[in-house]
Design goal:
Elements (H helix, E strand, L loop, with lengths): L2 H17 L1 E7 L8 E7 L7 E8 L2 E2 L3 E4 L3 E6 L11 E3 L2 E5 L11 E2 L2 H21 L5 H18 L4 H8 L6 H10 L2 H4 L2 H15 L10 E4 L2 E4 L9 E7 L4 H17 L4 E8 L3 H10 L6 E5 L1 H4 L9 E5 L5 E4 L4 H10 L5
Length: 348
């Protein structure tokens, strides 16, 4: 190894050492009834690994210090039952203080360091906008405009740290086009963060399967049989696909609407297929039997398959034309009926 190589390695090690920092977490978790370990989970990668632990005595965090190479998003939690879990925490240099009564706090629970203080500031404004919208003092459009104006300066100031990533992940209500603009504001490093990477892939999948595009087929193995979406779609009839899960309350409330339109339009040429996702088929079958769902089902559908259509939440419906073209996505409740009335105007 020559002298130049040795110097280069030493400089790299010095640079790496310069990135390391020390942090402290102090405060009271808001109840004297808890004594035990809390664990610090790194949420900046897909491993979701516990990187350290804190001892809590009668609700008070004992003096704790840790070391890290760079700031990261974390979750402070217990492993007992019932689970003690706090909102997101930004691990960074300095003393991070858990807010009083943090167990009852939603959103921002920490203060005392730049990222955590800025997150608290943003979250406060976000909560005010949501409250005004929920109370009907502003429309959803006005709420989105306010959210956009509040978020932009925070993202510009934190384009290369985990706070920018978390804020962008809260902007889905702004729509995919604007959301992609925010993603492009982030540095390449933050764009590679799993949260943003997955969000980007979902947006691209939605664009590939937007209204007017041809359906994307998939296959599911269940009960020693292979079922394809193309067993139903692209066969000369309109098809309404309902993506749902047994543990999803809104899905269960939506199923009666889907059954109603099935019964109303089945003789006009409408096919309906349920697509049960992200669960064991036995759980899906219990709901199918209990609710007496009359239309066929595709069971045992994985995240990989729902990812083809960019579906990251259920219920979600997709209406396909007879040739397999996607006519509409995300219809709920009365909107399903309105769309089908356009297609079958003579049905009463």
């Amino acid at each position: 190894m020559n002298k130049k190589t040795i110097i280069t390695i030493l400089l790299a090690l010095v640079a790496m050492a310069g990135q390391a920092f020390q942090y402290r977490i102090v405060g009271n978790i808001g109840t004297t009834e808890f004594t035990g370990w809390l664990y610090l989970m790194n949420q900046s990668d897909r491993n979701y690994s516990d990187v350290d632990s804190l001892w809590v005595e009668n609700g008070e965090i004992r003096a704790f210090e840790g070391n890290a190479q760079e700031p990261f998003l974390a979750l402070l939690h217990s492993k007992g039952r019932p689970m003690v879990q706090f909102p997101c925490l930004f691990v960074e240099e300095g003393t991070i203080k858990l807010r009083p009564a943090a167990m009852a706090t939603r959103g921002a629970a920490y203060m005392g360091t730049p990222l955590n203080d800025d997150w608290a500031c943003f979250y406060s404004q976000l909560s005010s906008i949501q409250e005004a919208s929920d109370e009907g003092r502003i429309t959803q459009i006005e709420a989105n405009q306010k959210l956009d104006s509040v978020a932009a300066p925070f993202v510009r100031n934190h384009y290369n740290d985990p706070l920018g990533t978390v804020i962008v992940s809260r902007l889905e209500d702004l729509g995919n086009e604007r959301l992609m603009e925010y993603i492009k504001m982030l540095s390449p490093k933050q764009q590679g963060n799993p949260i943003i990477h997955d969000m980007t892939q979902t947006i691209l999948a939605v664009q590939r399967t937007s209204e007017g595009t041809m359906f994307k087929d998939f296959a599911v193995e269940y009960d020693d049989k292979t079922v394809h979406l193309s067993d139903y779609v692209g066969r000369g009839q309109y098809v309404l696909a309902d993506f749902w899960a047994s543990w999803c309350g809104p899905c269960l409330r939506e199923i009666p609407n889907v059954i109603a339109v099935y019964n109303k339009y089945k003789d006009c040429g409408l096919k309906v297929v349920g697509i049960a996702v992200w669960e064991e088929s036995d759980e899906s079958l219990k709901v199918i039997e209990k609710k007496k769902i009359p239309y066929p089902q595709i069971l045992n559908v994985s995240e990989e398959i729902t990812g083809i259509y960019g579906i990251n939440a259920v219920p979600h419906t997709i209406l396909f034309a007879p040739d397999g073209t996607i006519l509409a996505r995300g219809l709920r409740g009365e909107d399903i009926e309105k769309k089908l009335k356009e297609i079958f105007p003579n049905n009463r």
